[in-house]
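Researcher: Quick test of sequence recovery. Tokens follow.
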């Protein structure tokens, strides 16, 4: 079932290398210059502002341009090679579900039809948001704490914008990628061989990924009060 959700787009590079490297340089400086017991707070701040930038930029694309293309594949590689050449399956075959607030969490949704979005806004505004397990589909990626919507985009976008309702999302822990994958803001690469795996759908996904990796590396050495 899960395999049908994935479409790897090879050869398409959306850019973002310059922004990615600038963001990582800034993050390195923020952490380096912070007092040791406050570095996790700094990383949490950076993660939160990048999540919000990603969330609202994707939501508002439809207002600024025509012909918006929604993300048709997950923002992380579904498989990756480990250091010995074996394949690591990133997405669980029988994922657990979690409840996600459309008001308070980073729900990344790309509505692509203005008429359908306007109709959904009217409906949700008048009646509230109602989760439909036959239509609403999403993945929640830990430890980045972002939720990617792949079905029911317009009604969920209305709920996000109006800050109403909850959805149930499949949970996926992408920390399994930390030791095996890196990014330059445009593509994913094997950390072991340097092989290009696939294009990155948005450079901010790469920023969040690397910030979350840094946080994991730093957390055991820090204990902020």
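Model:
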């Amino acid at each position: 079932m899960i395999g049908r959700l994935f479409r790897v787009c090879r050869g398409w590079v959306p850019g973002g290398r310059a922004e990615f490297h600038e963001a990582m340089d800034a993050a390195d400086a923020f952490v380096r210059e912070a007092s040791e017991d406050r570095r996790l707070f700094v990383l949490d701040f950076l993660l939160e502002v990048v999540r919000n930038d990603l969330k609202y930029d994707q939501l508002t694309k439809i207002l600024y341009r025509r012909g918006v293309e929604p993300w048709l594949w997950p923002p992380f590689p579904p498989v990756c090679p480990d250091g010995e050449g074996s394949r690591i399956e990133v997405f669980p075959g029988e994922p657990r579900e979690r409840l996600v607030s459309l008001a308070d969490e980073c729900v990344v949704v790309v509505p692509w039809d203005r008429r359908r979005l306007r109709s959904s806004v009217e409906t949700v505004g008048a009646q509230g948001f109602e989760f439909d397990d036959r239509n609403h589909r999403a993945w929640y990626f830990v430890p980045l704490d972002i939720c990617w919507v792949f079905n029911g985009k317009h009604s969920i976008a209305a709920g996000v914008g109006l800050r109403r309702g909850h959805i149930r999302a499949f949970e996926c822990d992408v920390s399994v990628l930390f030791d095996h994958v890196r990014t330059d803001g445009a593509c994913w690469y094997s950390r072991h061989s340097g092989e290009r795996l696939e294009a990155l759908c948005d450079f901010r996904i790469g920023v969040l990924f690397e910030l979350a990796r840094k946080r994991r590396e730093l957390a055991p050495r820090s204990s902020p009060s």
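Confidence is low (pLDDT under 50) at residues 1-14.
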